[in-house]
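Hello K.,

You asked for the raw outputs rather than the summary table, so here they are, unedited. I folded two proteins back to back in the same session to keep the settings identical. This is the first:
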Amino acid sequence: MSPQRVIRPAVRRSPAGAGSLLWAAAAAALPVVVTVLILVVLTLGVLLFSATGFDSLFAVVAVEWLVVNRVPLTIDAVELGFLPLLPPLIYAVVLARQTRAVLADVEQPGAREAGAAIVGATVAGLLLTGLASLLVGSAASDFAVRESSLPLALTWTAVVGIVGSGLGVWLFFRRDLREELPLWVRGGVHLGAAFVAAMWAISAFLVLVGILFAWEPVEASMGIGKGLAGTAALTGISIAYLPNVVMAGAALLVGGEAHLGEASYSVFAVSRGPMPEVPLAAALPTTNPHWIVQGLLLVTVLTAALLARSVAHWFRTTADAVKATWLAAAIAAVVTVLTPVVAGGDLGVLGSVGTGSLIAAGMALLLFGIIGSTTIALSLAGLTRRRERAESELARRRRRVGATGGVTTDEVTDDRADDLDGGTAGGPVDEDSVASDAAADDEAADHAAEDAGAGDEDHASGDADAGADDENHASGDDDVARDDDVPSDDGPDDDAAAGDDDPVSDDDAASDGGLTVDADADPSDEAGGEDAGTAGSADSADEGTVDVPDAGSADLPDDGPKAGD
C-alpha cells in the first residue's frame, strides 16, 4: 500500500476519473508486455546457442505466448491440447500481484478501478494473441505450429487474464468481502481451498516418491536427449508438466481414475499403454498396485477429518459448521470436474489425457461432505459443552463479584470474557441486587444517625441533672454541639434550620437540636453526618472485605472460539 494512501485523509480523496481508470488499465497490462519481452530474450538466447538463425524468432515467440495462455495447438495437423500448466500458473500469479499493487496505488479503489484493471490485463492479452495468430499464420509455409482455432485461442487467453487479474482483485478486497459474507460462506471457502491444497500436496509428494523409486527408467529416458541441451529440454518439459500430473493424482486420491491414451490408473488397477518419451512419464506405475496403495483412500479420509476438526472453533452453531463443510466439499468437487479441462487434452496420436471427472467429483463430494460434516459436528458439540460450562461459571462469578458492592466486575473479567465468542466483557450486573445493597447502606446510615442523636440526648440530660445553675453553661455546650454537628451557614442544611419552605421529612432524616442527616446523601460527604458516615463506613468496610474470586480461573477451552476470516 502506497504511503499517500495511508497519509492522506479519506475526506480529501476525490473519486477516480477517466484518466485514473486508464492508468489502472495500463498498469495492470504491464505484465503482458514484460512477459513478451522475457520470451523474446529467452528465445534469442536459445537460437543464438543453437546457431539456427533468427528467421523464426517472431514465430517461435508467438507460439510460446500461446502456450503461456494455454491455447491448444496444431502441429502438422496433429492436435496438441495437452499443454503444460506451469507457464500459465506463473503468468496468472504475476497478473494477480500486479493487479493488487495497482489497486493499492489508486485513491478510493472500487468496482470501477477493479474492472478497469481486469479489462486492461485481459484486452492486452487478447491483442497479443491476435497478433501471435497472424505471425504463425504468415509463417505457415516453413513453420508447422499454429493455434487450433482463433476463437478458442481468444477464449483461453481471456480466461487466463480474468482469472489472474481477478485473483489480484480478490486479494485486495478480501477484507471488505469478509464483512459482507456470512461466516459459513467464508469458512466454507477457506475449508474448500484447504481440501484442494491438501490433496495437491499429497499428490505432489507421491509423484516425487514415484520418481525416486523409478529413477533408473527416468535416467534412461533422460539419456534420449543425447547431450546437455537435449537433457535440459526433457527436464524442462517434465517440470512444466508436473502440475498436470499432480492435479490428475489428486483425482486418484478420492477414488477416481486417470488415463493417458490407452493407459489408465487408479488405486485399484493399472492398465498399460504407449507412453511419451519424457522422464515424467517413465515414473508412472506399470504394474497393478499393492493393497497398501489402496490405503491412500484412508489418508484422504484422515485429511478431511483433521481439516474439519481444525476449523470447528470458527463456528458457534452446528448448522453453520455443517453448511460450511458441504460448501467446501462442493468446491473440491468443482475443482475435480475442471481438472481434465484445465490439465488434460489431446496428446497427438497417443489419444486424450485426463481423469474420470464425474466419478472423481462425486467421490470428492461424498467423502469430504460426509466425513467432514460428521467430524466438525462432533468436534463442535464438545466445544459447545465446554463453552457453556465456561460461560455459566463466568456468569456465576460475575454475580458473586457484583454482590459484594463497590467492586467493578469489568476490571476482573475483561480478559477472560474476551475469550468467549459473543460474550460481553464485564457483563451486566444485576440491578436488583445493586439497588437492594444501596438501600441497605442507606438504612444502616439512618440507624447510625438515630443512635448518634440518642447519644446526644442522653448527654444533654446528664448535663441538665448535674446542676441547674450550670444551665447557661449547658446551653453553651448545646450551642457548641450544634456548631460541631451542623454544617456551615453556606450549606443546604442552614436554610432548612432557618425555616425553609422545603423541610426534610421525618422519614428521610433524623434531627435533634439542629442535627440533620439526609438519608439520601452519602454519609461520608456530608459534614453534618460525621458520626453516621463513620457508622456507614464501618458497615461498608465489613461488607467490602470480601476476597474477590478470580474470574479468570474459569475452565475455558484452550482452543476457544475464534472469528473465521
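The second followed immediately with the same parameters:
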Amino acid sequence: MVKGANVGLSALSEDVGSVMVSLGWSSPTGEGDADVSVLLLTADGKVRSDADFYFYNNPVAADGSVQLLGKTPTSDGNEDRITFDLTAIPADVEQVVVAASRYNGARFGDLEDVRVTLADGSGEGLLRFSIEDAGAVGALLFGEFYRRAGGWKFRAIGQGYESGLAGLAQDYGVDVDDDAEESEAEAAEVAEVAEPVATELRPEAEAEAVAAAVPLAAVPAPGPVPVVEQIVSESVEAPAKPVPRPRTAKKKVTLPKVAKKSLAENDSWRAARLFPVSALKSDRDRETRATSVLLSVMAQVPEFGRRLTAGFGAPAGRMEMFTEVSLPNGDSPRRPDGVIRIERAGKLWTALVETKTNGNSLKPDQVQAYTDIAARRGYEAVITLSNDVELDGSPLVDVKTDGRRKHKVALRHLSWADVAHQAQMLIRHEGVGNAAHAWLLQELLHYLQHENSGCHGFQNMGPAWVPVRNGIDDETLCQGDRRAVEVVESWERLVRQVCLRLGGELGQKVLPVQRAKRGTDPRVRRAALADQLCLAGRLDSELRIEGTPGILALSADLRTGKLRTSIEIAVPEQGYPLTWAKRLIRQLSDAPADLHVETLLDGQVGGPRGTLERLRPEPGDILPRNDAEITGFRLSLFRSMGNTRGSAESGFIRSVDEAVDRFHDHVVVHLGRPGSTRR
C-alpha cells in the first residue's frame, strides 16, 4: 500500500473476523525500539474513555477485541504483533487507530524499514505498508481500521507527531491531568495503604515523564483489565517532580518473591501436586498428560488461555478443550492429542492440537493428515506443540495445501518454552485475576519444569553438532557444508529460548538482535553465518535486555571451547576519564574478580585492558597513556563450554544458560539503566 490508500478487508480475504497487525522496524545499531498502542474512537474521532487506550500497561481488552501480543523475533529484527477480533469491537466504535511511540527523545527517523503488515485469521499476509519518510517524530500513526457499509476497511496513514505520545493522546481525547501536586498526593496515599500491584509504568517512560515534568494519573477501568492514564502534560516551565506509579483498576495477583517456609519435617517429604509426574513412563504418557494439563489450565485461566489463542488468530469467547478426540479419516480414524473450540456470537473456531514431548520431532505425515482433516471439516487451525523452536524461513513441518479448497487452515507452532514464558510473565510480573488462577499457573509451571514431563524446551544441538566441532578442530570443515547450517539454526533456536527464559524470569523484554540487511532471506543469512562459522570457528549472537545500558553479546568459540559474554557501555557526555573509570569500578564492586575490563578508543582497536581484581586498587590503569579519546568500556566474562550437544550437566546448552545468567546477575544488574551517551 501507499500512504493514504485504503482497502476493504472483505476484498482481501473471507477470514477477516480476526486479524493480526504486525508493526516492524530495524536499526543499524540493533538498539532501536518503540512501544505500540491502539485507540478505539467513536464517530467524533475521540476515545469514549481512557479505557479505550491500549498500550504496554493495558495490553488486553476485557471483551477480547484488542490484544497486544508483544515482540516476536523475525529474520531482520523484531515485530510487535496485535490481534483484533473485529466482530467484538463495540458498535459505537467507528475507528481503530494503530500507532507506536519512542522514548528518551528517540525518533522514528533513526529507524529503518518502518512498516506495518496485516494477516487474516489463517495467518496469510494481506497487505504491507512501508513508511519511508517517518522523520524526526516521537510517535507515528501506522494505520487505522474504520467501518464502511457494514464492513471494515484499512487505511495506510504514516503520520507522525513531533510531540510524541503526549500529542497523539491529546488529539484523540485521552484526558490530561495538569495537577501534578494532586497526582503526587494521590500516589503517596496509595503507597501507604496499598500493596504493590502487578503492572507498572516501564522505567523508560518514567524517565521520559520525569524529564518532561509529566504528571501521571491512574484511571479506574470497568473491567478486570488494569488501565492506566499514562498521559501527558508537556510543560517545560514546571519543575521536575517524582512521578507516581499508576494504580490498577483491580488488584492483580502475583506470586510472592519469597516462598513461604515449608512445614515438612525434612527434604524427603514431597508436596502434593495438582499435576503429578511420577507415573510418566513413556512418550505417549507424557504427550497425553502434557496436552490435558495445558488445555485444562487454558480453559480455567482466561488470561492465560486468551494470551495463547490470540496468537493463533482465535476470537475471544467461551472456550472449551478436549483430548483424544476421534475424527473420521477414511478407514482409519485419526486421534489428535487435543481440540480447542471457541464460541463467539454463535460461531465456532476450532483448532486441532498435535503434541510432542521429550525432544521428539513432529511427524510430517501426521501433521499433514490433521491439516487435511481440518480443511475438510471447516476447522480454522492446526497447532503443533513440541520442545523445538520454529524459525523464520525454516518451518518444522512442510505441509502441502490443496489450492482447490476454498477453506484455509492455519498451521501454527508453539514451543513448550513459549508456554512456560507466558505462564511466568503472568504469575510473577503481570498478575492474574485471583489467587486460584495464580495457583493453577504455578502448578502448570512446576509440571513443565519437572524432569519427567518432557516439556523442557529446546535441549539438543542436533546430530550435526559433533561432526561440525570435530571438523573445526581438525580444520576439515568447508564452506557450503549443510551441517554447518544445521548448527547455525540450532544456535539460533537456543538463543531465542534463552531470551524467553530470561525474559520470563526478569519480567522484561529480552530479544535477539538481528543485523541483517533489509529484506534478506533468512536462509541466505544463515548460510552466510554458516560460512563464517567454518572460517572463524565461532558462533555469535546479541541479546537486547530492556532497561540495560547496552547489548549483551554472546560468543561460543568452538576452537578454544570458551564461551564469552560481554557488554559495551558508552561513557557519559561530560566528565573526566579517571572519574569514569573510578565510577565503573565502584559499580562493579560485587562483580566477579575475573571480569575482563577493556577500554574502547575512538578509531583504534585494542585499548588498555585488565581483570577487575587488578583494577580495583588502581582504576587509572585502564586509561590510555596517549590521551586517545575514550568512547566506552567493554566488560567480558569467560567460561568453558560443555562438551556434549544436550542440556545435561556437561552439555553445551546448559553452559550457555549458566554463562548468560552469571553475566546478567553479577555484572549487568550493577550497571544501572541506560543514560546519555557520547555521539
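The first strand starts at residue 6 and ends at 8.

Happy to rerun anything if the numbers look odd on your end.

Regards,
P.
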